[in-house]
Write a structure and sequence with these properties.
By secondary structure, the chain is an alpha+beta fold. Helix content is 29%, strand content 20%.
């Protein structure tokens, strides 16, 4: 019997960038965040491009842990960056994904 994978952790080096450590009040790396709590509103996207079917399929069909980096959400759980990775995670049946929560209020201060 095959077990369904609900979570694939991203590699630690993605969560340990110096900017996250230099500004802990702004950037909060968070493991195993529930995908169903992430909200979508394109006005929050860094790059409001449509989801690329080609990119999503590439992520799924050529999955590489070395490239599986956290997505970015704001402190209200709206997606900021990583829509193709998030879509790939959903299509792979994942329930959780690693995120970097960005406090956009602290970022502007």
């Amino acid at each position: 019997m095959k077990t369904k994978v609900e979570y694939i952790p991203s590699m630690e080096h993605f969560k340990n960038y110096s900017i996250y450590k230099d500004y802990p009040d702004v950037f909060k790396p968070t493991d195993k965040f529930p995908i169903d709590e992430i909200k979508i509103d394109k006005k929050y996207f860094d790059f409001p491009n449509p989801i690329s079917e080609e990119d999503v399929n590439y992520i799924i069909n050529n999955f590489c842990l070395d490239g599986w980096e956290p997505i970015m959400i704001n402190n209200d759980y709206f997606l900021i960056d990583g829509q193709n990775r998030l879509e790939a995670a959903k299509r792979m049946g994942l329930k959780y994904i690693d995120v970097i929560i960005i406090d956009t209020g602290a970022l502007k201060a």
